[in-house]
Amino acid sequence: QHGELVFAQTPFYAEGGGQIGDAGVIEFEGGVNCVVSDVKKRAGDVYAHIGKAQGGAIRVGDTGLLQVDGERREKTKANHSATHLLHAALRDVLGAHVTQK
User: How many beta carbons lie within 10 A of that of residue 98, not counting itself?
Assistant: First the structure.
């Protein structure tokens, strides 16, 4: 089942500022896990981990071990930095009217 999981604390970065959210796995007792494909910031400091449960059901109150896909995060960080460098170069060549949204 697809759904969103919310935790009191998370090591996952949420989507924002032109950067995609982290991916990874949340492991629960009994062999149940959730494969996280994205993280979005909701109202306030609420972070929704979007993913698909495997191996059983996840219930309110279950505790999980949150594991970020480190390789993907490093690639995302590099891509995000490269985007900023490209944007700066485009502004230098084409002018201040070039914007990044």
Answer: 13
